[in-house]
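Support request, please re-run this one:
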Amino acid sequence: MVSNPGSASAMLDPVRTAIAAAEDTLIVYFAGHGLMDTSGKELYLTIPGSDGKRLYTAVAYEHLRHELLESRARNRIVILDCCYSARVLGVMSGQEDGELLADMAAVSGTYVMAASDKIALTADEYSEFSGELIRLIGEGIPDQPELLTVNNIFRHAQAALRDKGKPVPQKRDTHFTHNLFLVRNKWFSDNHDSPLIGPIDHPLPQTLYERRRDLHDAGVHRPLQAGICGTADRGAESIVVSGGYKDDHDYGNVIIYTGHGGRDPNTGRQVRDQSAYDSGNAALIKSIMTGFPVRVVRGSGGNPEFSPQAGYSYDGLYTVTDYWTKKGVDGFSVLQFRLEKQLNAPASAMNAANWSRISGGIYADLRLADKLNRIYDYSCQMCGVTLEAPGGLRFASAVHIQGLSVPHNGPDSLDNMLCLCSNHRDLFRYGSIVIGDALEIIDQIGNEPLGVLIEKHHINRAYLSYHRQHHSIYNAPT
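Re-run finished. Output below.
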């Protein structure tokens, strides 16, 4: 135990050393006690020997913040697990000092997560907050991708503590990419061979199951509790429609499905807003982007016209076509998804899950489109812009240079494809823009160059030539 008030340097000197060394990512984690001054305007972090009546024996958070301002690291993560820590985030609703304290927390390029704005609770070995973070990192998060982002970990810790009735942690990020990958998902490494999108070899639609465990064992719907199975990275595998949410509407071939989250498990009432960052909701949004079908299971609690009298029924493949946000019956914001049944869906998993019908008997391989988007990290080859949907999901369009259908008869191959944003997709598709053999981007309307195409994969110039000839404007205005 060190009681010398000057020992504050024992906390800040190691931080300063780390700040000097870190160039990419700096993580500062404090677990201990927190004190507020008599005005409630400043948080103090305790050290061995700190005395609540002599705050000069503790370390003012403002001093830590000042050190963080000196960091050259592109990303900074600050974890405060102590009493009153969330007060530096400005979460004290209605209190005039909230904005002042929030300004104290703000450091550009920093993600701050804090345990509580009250007394932080201690579990058996760790505090509630630290224990939840350690559990998520050690066990992983079900139905999440291989790499977990800092925001993903925080959101799940927050939801877990809220569901347990514990103090809810808060976060603040300032010019920070919350999609920064932090750790590998232990759950993913243990289960990465399990996911299957689209139809499975068995069963046929209308097959009945007595319990959720039977659905799991058959591979129809793997989670034993969650209504949505899937990840933001791959999309949704399956959903269960069982009348659990008051805002659901089941019309048979069309389902209006309420997203996950915010419902009290005991009363069934919606008690908080839903978020697009929730893993299940993000998975359904991803399914809209990919076009991959989703297996639908109906439970006995749903619309009796289409649901089984008891247990569960597998009711085939549906496509997620749209989603929106609305105020639900209980007064909180919910996400709703529109699903349409795939009538006469192909029985082959390849046809249903991996192929998109272009016209007639012509299909495009969705796996190629996904591979192309990943090569360019969902950024447009013409303008470099990356489009992002709620939930942090990025999206782009994979466009064939020489069309697949008659009379073009182009190949479904990567060298005949471009990754474009929605604006440049349409301009290219309708011939407003063409691309030269040197990859120069030409505006045919204004008859002027717009730049050079970004090329990270081989593009066959013959297909570019075909596109130019097909969309040549012979009488363009001068």
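The radius of gyration is 27 Å. The first helix runs from residue 9 to 21.
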